Amino acid sequence: MNFYLVDDDRNVLAIVGMIVEKRGLGRVIGSASNGADALEDLRDLTPDIVIADLLMPVMDGLTFVEEARKSHPQLAFIMLSQVSSKDMIADAYEKGIEFFVQKPVNSVELETVIKKVSASLSMNRAFLKMQNLFQQEMQLAPQPAAPKPQEAPHLAKLKTVLQRLGIIGDLGSRDIQQLVDYLITHGEDLGSSTLGELCGKFSQNPKSVEQRIRRAASTGLVNLANLGLEDYTNEIFTEYASTLYNFEQVRREMDCIRGRSDQHGKVFIKSFLSALVAYCQN
Fold it and tell me: N or C, fewer C-beta in 10 Å, the chain?
């Protein structure tokens, strides 16, 4: 695993870095003393796990995690802090962290947490590969029965696309269907509102909805890249790699899967959703 560290205390950076590398947990590929600088670094670096302090100058840890997840939904976050407020800890988990570790850092506790997060990431990646194999088998199976008459045609088309991407069972799939249905039935354009504003029409916690949508879209990108590695002429790959996604980003994800690069592909979420709307209306 590749790690990125964010803390305004140099001693903490040194201690955490030593725990990571001396105990064979992975390698530290970068660090910063505040969230703003870390966001700049993440444009060029692709860590698997980010360990960040809660209270920092310029940009605090909660804001950093929230902003980082927008462009890097695949990252796992571990947060460090001396804060014991239950509300702040709950807010940290709501922002998307995996674990909250109290300072001063206990090396045994941090090592245990890192191993758990690493194991979870490895398991998720293995699941995605299995999901991809299952998706390929599904392509050989008979096509699903026609949708029930009461289901809107555009929703039937949308479900077919999500199924072909291998994300129909993802938590964010329901949110994607709800959002695309709203845009089509109300004749709204994505450019007139932010994604957060649109998600707010369906939930009192639009940030969680937005995160689920981004994660589902990112899973689709990984599945598509795996299809391309298996068969570059695969029908699903050729149809969606340059329509729902940016082809260069799909290629980047393929290189990452091959181990040729540490750079994961990115999903431009508004373009992804706009393309889904277009598919449903054609």
Answer: C
108: helix, strand or coil: helix
Q: Domain for residue 58, yes or no?
A: yes
Domain that holds residue 161: 142-281
150 with 112, same domain: the answer is no
Q: Residue 180: what residue type?
A: V
Render pLDDT for 92-128 as a digit per residue (tens, 0 to 9): 888 889 999 999 999 999 999 999 999 988 888 788 7
49 phi-psi bin (left φ>0, alpha ψ -120 to 50, beta other): beta
Q: Can you tell me which residue has the tokens 């709307």? A: 277
Nearest CA-CA partner of 63 in 38, 35, 41 = 35
Q: 241 and 224 in contact (C-beta within 8 Å)?
A: yes
- The residues near 168 (Cβ < 8 Å, ≥ 6 apart) are 159, 162
Return the residue matching tokens 């004749």.
Answer: 187
CA angle centred on 104, ends 103 and 105, rounded to 5°: 85
Q: Is residue 128 domain-resident?
A: no
CA-CA distance, 218 to 197, in Å (whole number)? 21
Tokens coding 43: 């444009």
Residues 165 and 269 placed together within one structural domain of the fold: yes
